[in-house]
Amino acid sequence: MRALVTGASGFVGAALARTLLAAGWQVRVLVRAGSDRRNLRALSVESTVGDLTDAPSLERAVEGCDAVFHAAADYRLWVPDPQAMYRANVEGTRNLLEAARRAGVRRIVYTSSVACIGLPRDGTPGTEDTPVSLETMVGHYKRSKFLAEQVALEAAAAGAPVVIVNPAAPVGPRDIKPTPTGQVLLDAALGRTPAYVDTGLNIVHVDDVAAGHVLAFHRGRIGERYILGGENLPLRDILLAVTRLAGRSPPRLKLPHAVVLPIAYAAEGFARLTGKPTRVTVDSVRMARKRMYFSSAKAERELGYSHRPASLAFEDALEWFRAQGYLGDAPQNG
């Protein structure tokens, strides 16, 4: 079978392309003209140049494909022009789903995010059934992904063969940017995290997320959402595990959110003046007020999904960061 993978030059998309190739699929990847293609080196994939905002390029990309895995997204917690994010994440999803519908694609797996999953007030893990609305979405990234997921749900309701997966915080090799979660790990490994706030994340190995996508193609029910998660861990435990692996001292100072928020506002103001992105954002601090814990029980039950311990994800991520020179070591091949 032939699959189109969008976002294949990125973190989740590259892991997905590798998983599909290992399973014997023919893989076509949609890449932008200026994309960093390091994650596609040595992969036997067919590349087609296009953009989610360019409908004709999408029609060419989906032609002859049995499946479309839409993993591309503008994933940033601070952007100087939010409208560009909405064009890519919302309108881009609409364009791709329409192109796939016209081409008669057998099944579409849309990569959403746990950012679109509600969090219960009592602190228990969120599920696909936890109530959520656009008004509860913090920041442009979450809002754009929520709206894009609505596009996918509406397409499924209209008869399109769309299955939705909601990955948690993926960790592992080939996080070249890195992603916001990968940057947290990298900063900790470099000893750049002197303090932390009281929050938590659901950590999942990126290869388990990729495997979950393929399971969703084969076993997912059209119009359904499936959380692809791993372990729920307090941020302090995440930082402790990473610093231990990197041979660093863990941060011991816990800062109240009220102290960090003014710092984030100042950092964003400086970013607007300089045009350079900031790692400390208002949205990230606001999101950190809750522990972002989720349950993958539905995916385990219906898809046969499983995940490895978060400790293995941390080990693989740091091993790759080290090999590529992100930790100050000499880069190696791979």
Protein model, in words:
The protein is α/β, with parallel strands linked by helices and 334 residues long. The chain has a domain of 221 residues: NAD(P)-binding Rossmann-like Domain (Rossmann fold, 3-Layer(aba) Sandwich). Helices cover 43% and strands 15% of the residues. It contains eleven helices and twelve strands. The strands form three sheets. It has a seven-stranded parallel beta sheet, with helices on both faces. A three-stranded mixed beta sheet has the order 7-9-11. It has a two-stranded parallel sheet with strand order 8-12. α4 links the parallel β5 and β6. α7 packs across α11.
Summarize the structure.
The chain is of the alpha/beta class and 334 residues long. 43% of the residues lie in helices and 15% in strands.
